[in-house]
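== Sequence entry ==
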Amino acid sequence: MRSKMLSERQQRVLVSMKLLATFWQRRLPAEATSRDEIEQLLSLEAAGLVRATFDRPLRERTGEFYIPRAIVLEVTAEGLSALTRAQRQQPGILGEMPSRRPARSSRGRKAGAGAEPIPGHSVVK
């Protein structure tokens, strides 16, 4: 079977969707420290697909700014809808679709009340 070549934009969207799928499968809250993941999470949060907190940006000696850590608190209902839509449009594109389902809430999948907080990080409610 021939695979269709994806444009650069489509590849970036696919990488973001795969990251979203990994956070859907993980126990939340979940931490991300990779600069690439944090950049993608900034986009996913701006799109309303996740709810996350980000550490304050730090400046390197080179003058470049970076965010050292992000905490994903929730995959929103919109995020789950986007995952479902991507999987429906191109089955298998995200690998195996996450099997977890949110509790009967319209909000999405959040960190549970029993979830342990991440040391040194306060969650604003």
Observations:
- Helices lie at 8-25, 35-46, 77-89.
- The first strand starts at residue 30 and ends at 32.
- The two ends are 49 Å apart (CA to CA).
